[in-house]
Every structure is written in structure tokens, then in C-alpha cells.
Amino acid sequence: MSGRWDPHVHSTASDGTDAPAELARQAAAAGLDGIVLTDHDTTAGWAEARAAGQRHGIAVRCGIEVSACVPRAGERPVSVHLLAYELDGDPGAGPGATVQELLEATVGGRARRMDRMAELVAADHGVGVEEVWAHVPPGATPGRPHVADALVALGAVADRDEAFATVLGPGGRYNLPHPVPTVDEVIPAVRTAGGVVVLAHPLAGRRGRVVVREEVEQMVELGLAGLEVHHRDHDAGERVLAARWADAYELVPTGASDFHGDGKPNRLAENTTGADELEELWRRRG
């Protein structure tokens, strides 16, 4: 392993706008040495991404951005995203059975939420539910970005950013919850399957409530191995704080673009992780 990696990117297998193969091509053109495909709660793009990486001469590894939550006494749980890496050591293998069961339950909950969101949009804009669902690519994990795309097509918002700043953001009419597993379930399951876990954008307050230091410490006790420090949604102060947490708990600090193609302003390779840091993560596999 060598060079610069972008270890948090999305394709049309979830809510990105580029197919896995196109993502690999763009990453090679951007001068990256490698990427890790981390679609939301799915492994659907893994095979295509790997094959394209070989064609374009770029290393492609595969992971999952797992939706999870941190329970809080007397409050709603805090939503978090866990980057599960190195579940694909065998090129023909997928995640372990327990991880797969968690993913299937989450995707089922996402689909039911999509039904509810589509019904609201359809009622508000005088269209059919199927017109909203049409923005979910076949086989993709359905999510709020697809509702945003429907709203853009309807002329209700200019782009995904406006949708997430209004009706799909915190407190927005279409921002509905869906059931997700707790970190106590996800982190041990990933480690049992031979993987390693990084907490994505832990201090991105613009997305909603964020974890506090004590909750990160609890995740470390469960087996958390890394912290995504360098991310577009972290301002300078948040990056400093995340780096301090990483140092305090001996977590591997990472940086990534969280690229979604045209769906977000995030640009491929705008934040990256060095090969040494990734190799240290891989050494910490369950």
C-alpha cells in the first residue's frame, strides 16, 4: 500500500451520483493511489468497483458506512455513522453474518421510511409516490438524498444542499427517522467479522446532534479504532478537537472527502489519508 487514499466515498449503490466503475475512473484521474468504497448500509457496489480499479490502475478496497446510534438516557439516541473497513479480505466474501443481518434490517427500515417520505412529497406536490421512488436507482439503498433529487426535479428546491437546509434537515417536514442498530451492536459485530471501525465526521454539528467525548470513550471500549478528523463538515476548531480525541484514545486519525458525485459539493480527494495510517488501521482488525 502506498500514497494518498480517499477512504470514504459513495456511489449509486447508495446515495452517490456516479456508478462504482465511474468512481474508480475519476479517482485514478484525480491522482489518488486508492479509494475505499463506503456506501450506506450495502455492499452492492463492491464487485464493480474492484473490477474497475483493476482496469484503471488504482487500488480499490471496500467498506460500508453503517448507520447506527448512541443511546442517551432520557433523550433520543444520537445518530452516528460508522465506517466498517476490511470486511472483504477474501475478494469473493462479504461481511460476516451478523453484520449482514444488521444491514438488512436497516435497509428494510430505510425502505419503509422512503415510503413515508414519498407519500408526504406526493401529497404536498400533487404527484404519484412512484415519481419520488423513481429517483432511487435500482438496487440502491434508499435515503433522503433521493427525496432531495425528487424535490429538485419538482422545482421545489434548487439542489440537494437547499433540501437538506430546509425540509430534509433537522426538524424538516420530510426528515423522518428510521430504525438503526446501536454502536454496541455494530462495533463488536464488525470486529467479530474481522473488520475495523472508524467513527465518521464525529463533530459535524450542522448535521444535527453530535457525540460527546464520553460517548467516544465508550466506543473505544467496544473496539473503535479510528476517528475521521479531516472532513468538510468539520470546521478548524472541530478538527483540532477531533485530533485531540484521537490522540487521547490512541485512535487512528483519518481524512476523507465523503464524495457523493454531483449530489454534494464535496470533491474527490479534498481530504485524504496516508498509506501509513491505513496500514495501521488494517493492523487493528478484529
Automatic annotation (TrEMBL):
Region (Disordered): 256-286
Transmembrane segments: none
InterPro entries linked to this entry: PHP_dom (IPR004013), PHP_domain (IPR052018), Pol/His_phosphatase_N (IPR003141), Pol/histidinol_Pase-like (IPR016195)
Residue ranges of every copy of the Polymerase/histidinol phosphatase N-terminal domain listed in the record: 5-70
GO molecular function per UniProt: 5'-3' DNA exonuclease activity; 5'-3' RNA exonuclease activity
Domain of life: Bacteria
Protein name in the entry: Polymerase/histidinol phosphatase N-terminal domain-containing protein
Origin species: Kytococcus aerolatus
Species classification: Bacteria, Bacillati, Actinomycetota, Actinomycetes, Micrococcales
